[in-house]
Sequence to fold (136 residues):
Amino acid sequence: MATYNKVLIMGNLTRDPELKQTPSNQSVAQIGIAMNRKFKDREGNMREETTFVDCEAWGRTAEVMAQYLSKGKPVFVEGRLKLDQWQDKDGNNRSKLKVVIETFQFIDSKGGQSSTPPATAAAAPPSAPPADDIPF
Fold:
């Protein structure tokens, strides 16, 4: 069976990135992103819901995110879902779904794409071809 694991999200950081080093000297950053959704309920009232997503970035991507991003800054990330499983101190099985960031883009505060600092590991996600170029 074929599988596909890709996540694209854009939101604001809920906290400053937490940059750490593994014992093998690999950089890893823990990042929280919040995304808001506005909609009308059945009665026609405007509602808003917020979704919080935990993310992690590795290597140079983690270092750049920790250097240039801070709480409240908007960011666009592309990555994959990962399920972490462990046992807590009481022996209960626990799990948590998170996004492992593969690439990201800085977003300016007005919602547009902003420039990326030089020498970053962040690449722009591929854009879709114009509708005229689709062969079907």
Observations:
- The longest strand covers residues 27-40.
- Residues 22 and 84 are 17 Å apart (CA to CA).
- Strands lie at 7-13, 18-21, 27-40, 46-58, 74-87, 93-106.
